[in-house]
Amino acid sequence: MNGLSKHVDGEEHAAKRTKTEYPPLASRFIKKISSARDSITSTQFLKDGETIVSSGGIFELGFFSPTNSLNRYVGIWYKQIPVFTVVWVANRDTPITNTSSSVVFQIINSGRLALVEGNNSILWHTNTSILVQNPVAKLLDSGNLVITDGNENFLWQSFYHPTDTLLPGMIIGKNFHTGVEISLSSWKTQNNPGSGEYTFSLEATGYPQVVIKNGRMEVHRSGPWNGMDLNGTPGMGKLGTITQTFVIANTTAFLLYFKVFNSSSLVRAIISSSGTLQFYLWEDGSEEWNILYTAPTDICDRYGYCGANGICYYDNYPSCSCLDNFMPKNAVGCVRRTPLSCQNGSSDGFLKYSGLKFPDTKLSWFNSSMNLKECEKFCLKNCNCTAYSSLDISNGEHGCLIWFGDLIDLRMLPGQDLYIRMAASDLDYTSSSKGKKFNIVKLTSSLLIVPLALSLVTMIMKFYKRKWKEMKPVQPELLLVEDQTLFEASTITRATENFSIKNKIGEGGYGPVYKGVLDDGREIAVKRLSKTSTQGLEEFKNEVNFIAKLQHRNLVNLLGWCIKGEEMLLIYEYMPNKSLDSFIFDNSRRVLLDWTKRFDIINGIARGLLYLHQDSRLRIIHRDLKASNILLDIDMNPKISDFGLARSIGGNETGANTARVAGTHGYMSPEYAGNGMFSTKSDVFSFGVSVLEIVSGRRNRGFSHQDHYENLPSYAWKLYRDGRSIELLDEHLVESCNLTQVLRSIHIGLLCVQQHPEDRPSMYSVVQMLSNDADLPIAKKPGFFTGREIETHISTMEITDSVNEITISLLNPR
Known about the structure:
Number of domains: 6
Low-confidence stretches: 1-34, 429-453, 463-483, 786-814
Number of helices: 11
Structural class: alpha+beta
Number of strands: 49
CATH class of the largest domain: Mainly Alpha
CATH topology of the largest domain: Transferase(Phosphotransferase), domain 1
CATH superfamily of the largest domain: Transferase(Phosphotransferase) domain 1
Helix content: 10-25%
Mean pLDDT: 78
């Protein structure tokens, strides 16, 4: 039994799936099946081309080859779905490389499962010997391959030797009595099932928690079990599809497993080759795997991102803050302002934090019988105790969980209360004196009156200042601009030779752009507001205020600004290679951008958008991302420009609504163009269109094809659906391209332009997808799909547009 329970709930035969049998699997994965059976005995074997099928027909075991690989493996996959999905691999690290030799899968004399070559040499075998007569290998409807004796007792099971997949009823955990540990390990790549760098396991030091590791280094931690859920994964409990269970078996074993509410649902979890944990649910209607949950999801999910005693705030800039009464130290992390007295705990107290992911529990202690008050007393008596909390909140608050030393890997998340130990002088109240508490509250209230009054006065002044600005001509001193140079109009006029036509280098929705040279020799680019532009002061202020606060290698650098009369000028660093569209859409210049450089540009744009959406202190939605707004420096590095239409979002917001829809037709997402709803996913849509343009060298706006596909994403999706994505590639890139990168870029671009915002990945996920070779979800139809029908319309809008792909404004009545 390997020291674990003899039978795991969920391994019995599940109910048959009442659904139509799907078409046969692609021949590139599995050879034509010559026969199928439900088991093999010690006197039988399984040849390449034969399979074992579970009694309900849900799973199948046999030989397979991954895509683009000649190696052969024995594995288990879903039988009834058209997407070939492997859930277990026997010989993952010892593939069959000699496909011409005869290899069989059988039970050998010692009761072990083995792969045996024609000359009777053993290529792979299970690591246990079973002394039993006539063992039988069966595949259950749970996906568990088992060896049983004549009484149906499990002698060995694949569920105790998983690869990268966790199925309902499987467990991960550790038995301290036997030392047996069950964990998942990723594939090396999506086409190589060998043991990869990442593992998903139950960390049993201290109070148990689930961790993802890269080798020995932790990259993500779930938080401890609180009786209902893993503390750091609050979203898991709201999926409505699965339920998790945590078992402590008399402190000798810790086990975690999950079950599905509906036995006919196909649900699986994997640790991907890029180190992400993903829960998938099979959707019969769309015939694809939909992601239910992913971890890690953002920078705050990275283990210990803010160091010791630091809290990570995903929506703030900077993301890291110290706990109250702690201060930053030289390296990452925080230290106490006032040391703990530790005199029998009498002069220390606790500060209550609500809504925190609990700290790393490797240095922790727990007791399930204590109450919260007893937990507090126990902590105060121990000099090294720094925090405590309830252990179980499934039915009130029960048990005691205590931390020692520094508190690691904190982040803001909906959750339970954590009590952190503080020196008495750092506490805002004294629990033993109600009168003192009242006096402190009264004093605090008094002190608040003055700043509140000042705030009120400031608000009134700002209101009248805004009204005054609307009545008077715009003056430089009335603009709320920080840390930018105010240029004299004469300086810019001289630098551009009085805005000479020979110095004009482009034009956009704001107006023409001129090259100039300052008196000190610096080259600049000057955007000049056009008298016919629909943009104006608001876009000007947006550009100045946003770019002034943003610093990233993939964002354009604003040098300064100038206002005189009706002139509104924006002065940037000069980009000698102009904009991306001047290369990829130009027949003579497109050859200058080989695939390597285009792929670098795609990555650079993605990193710039990730900074805007997640890592900048303002959290910006650009709203007008397109090739003409991507500038290229002297080394062809991309820089996102033109923030005139950008909007800042704060707090936990991810988007907003507007009555004025502004952007560029062909790049706007359906929900934004149709309903004025913009979000970070609107930028993701624009990014996806840009990726398809970069790969194909074709402009989405005005795209035409002999088969009458009316836009580029529709055409790309049809090629992708038919397995012909490579046909989208710009013909000038054929010799220089990396085929894997090209196909992956197209796939990612299509994921970004899907119809519904919730289906599109975040820019964090996009950056991860571009930097590794983990499996990608199937792309659904793009927004504005125009194969034979138009699914989204904007005909109800009044559209103001102009030539040269400049910005448009759509007025959407409310």
